[in-house]
Amino acid sequence: MDNILIDSDVILDILLDRKPFSDNASIILARCESGEIKGFITPVILSNIYYILCRNSKHEKVISSLKILVNILEISIIDKTSVIKALNSGFKDFEDGLQNFSAETTEDIKIIITRNLKDYKKSNLSVMTPDNYLESITRA
Predict the structure, then answer these.
(1) 103: burial class by Cβ within 10 Å (0-12, 13-18, 19+)?
(2) pTM value > 0.70
């Protein structure tokens, strides 16, 4: 079973039903829910999703969506070590550095799923789009 970190953009594709991206993102989330894949998000991802969704939805509806996510996905820890590594890394976006180093230190996460591959150029992990990831596990 793969352990994957799912980036904010992929979760937002699902929750905002951004076609065509939401199709494969939803398949990945469904596989997390069924136990085929162990999916992770970070507290920062949850916070970002909350902030973006609350622009156009009520607090209660957004919280309901977040509760569903937390029941399906695990939460990767962002600790002091992750923060220091992100601060000292070559990541241009501090937030992406936080996600990356959280993933590197959590339960054998080897893959980050994102549509923003360029944001993770400095990652030591495998970084894939939802489309690429689904193709790779279909071939395996």
Answers:
(1) buried
(2) yes
